[in-house]
Amino acid sequence: MSLPPLWRLGACAALLGLGQNGLLVMLPLLVAHFGLPLSQWAGLILLGSMLFLVGSPFWGGVADRRGARLVVVQALLGYLLSFALIAAALWASVAGLLAPMAMLVVLAVARVLYGLTVSGMVPACQQWALALHPGGERLPALAAVSAGLSSGRLLGPLLAAASLSLSVYAPFALMLVAGLLALLLLPGVPQPARDTGALDGDALDKNALDKRAIDSDTRHSAAAHSSQGLAHRLPPRSNLAYLAMALLLAMSVSLMQLGLPASLQQALAIDATRAGHWMGVLLSLGAVGALTTQVGVVRARRLESRTLLVLGAMGLALGYALLAATARFTLTPGLSIGLGLLFALGVVLASTGAALAVPGYTEAATRHQAQGTSAGLLSMAHTLGYGLAALCVSLIDPGRLLPLALMAAIALLLLIPLARRGRRGARTAIARHGGHS
Predict the structure, then answer these.
(1) Integer angstrom CA distances of residue 39 from 20, 31, 103, 225
(2) Is the pTM of this model over 0.70?
């Protein structure tokens, strides 16, 4: 069967959700079987994730200069090697070949390898997809990558949970097979003859040159375009609002996921085990809603990027408001199902809002900066958002996490008019620049 190139790139991006969410599902068994406490496993997972701060912008720039294929291939190889190292270290520890401290060191090396290599996957897939479908096909191209991520997040927990009944090592085998399949799919994706995300002056049209001249500052002359240094890696002022939106969105989503268990226990009067079951159902429903939105709305090009952003921010705020309000209900006889449905509706609204907002601000940001570099900076902003959410969890009572997620979504919504003013200012400056040229 011949898969379209965009779906092949989406399958590569799906590995991110498959691996990360699958590892979270395995945590209880990993703690029980291999001697490391939950705090150390959480630290290992966070170690790999936080290295995306370094890796994402770096690999985004490499994709701009050298092409996206190289970056995706190294990300797939890093993914395979990191999970193979984890599985080998766990097996060697059980077999008595590795001491606990040596196992911990190997696991840390595997997570560092994961963070420094796999962090290039999404920026490179986005840059490659945009290069294959320039012009009016930008949103569908981005939607294919986002749909791949959502598919991985949806299938990862389900497949990992199902395979755990076979063996504690079975999820690792599943992840390795998925990575090999992605490598086999990659040759079917053509390499554009001319990479639209590259920073060569000849590859940029006059419009892009004018925008880069204004964003670097009107004090600089047209000769500044020939420099290929740090200035090209920094976001233009017109993109700062989009980076802030990415940080706030990731922070709010993480706060929702971390705050839901305690809210479910309190509102439904259930124990941690049943709250975990509810979490699985709610997050699966949210992933289905996000995937349906990405395929049916974003990829179908039914809405423009600004409309996607506005509707997405509204969906986030409405979903979090519903969750925060539902969490404050006091359970009465016969109300359990009703409260559960309200929780489900809130999660689906928030997940759908995120699915609309991410391609909205991503597409807008790549209009003002090279595609790979912009995608890398947005990925870095997402990672910072996750880190801020983790910091909030250590400082704030779990019952206040959902209201805090609502505040982040409202802040995102308020940033949208600011981004529009930034674009107007850039267009005015471009017009003045054109009048003097």
Answers:
(1) 17, 10, 15, 48
(2) no
